[in-house]
Structures are given as structure tokens and as C-alpha cells.
Amino acid sequence: AVFAAQLTLPVSSEVAILPDSNPYQMHRSWSENLLSNVLAKGEGSETLIIWGLTPADTGDHLNPDSWTTLVLDESFDPRSESSQNYLIGFCDRLFETNFASKISSNY
Known about the structure:
- By secondary structure, this protein is mainly alpha-helical.
- The chain contains 4 helices and 2 strands; from the N terminus they run H-H-E-E-H-H.
């Protein structure tokens, strides 16, 4: 009698010893899909966008131990309806550009 093993190819190089129902394995699977972990494994760069600040260097240029302080933009008011509409659609408009792309289709 001849027996042939029918093994399927793995879908990733990750080794999972515990079953998918195990709380540790569930947490591990969940954490692998966090944005920070996906970005760390992928290509491209991470961008940080901060609202309500003005570009300023308030530190002492002759003293490297002197830190700069944040300068607030007094004209920034996120409470208006037009500001809310702009902010809520910002990410969608960003990803429509040719220099930013979503990390996955369901992001």
C-alpha cells in the first residue's frame, strides 16, 4: 500500500502552537494587525500630523541643551462646522493623493 501525504503550503512564516481560541493567541493575532505593527513590517514611512501649532523655534540657538517650546496657533478653532467637515474628511482626501496610500483595503 502506498500513502501520499497531502500537506498544504503555509500562508505565512509565523508559527502558532496554540489554538486560535486561546486568549494569548487571540491577542497575538489582534496585535499583529495594529497600525504600528503593520507599518513596522511594511514599506513606506509614518507621518504625524498635528493641528493647532505654528512652526517656531523658541530655543536658544547657541545652547544645544535649550529646548524649544510649542507655540499654539491662536487662529485654529476646530469647533466651527466648516472645520469639523474639513477634519472628518482629511484622511480620505489624503489617501486620494499619489503620495499616500492605505496600508490595507479595509483601513
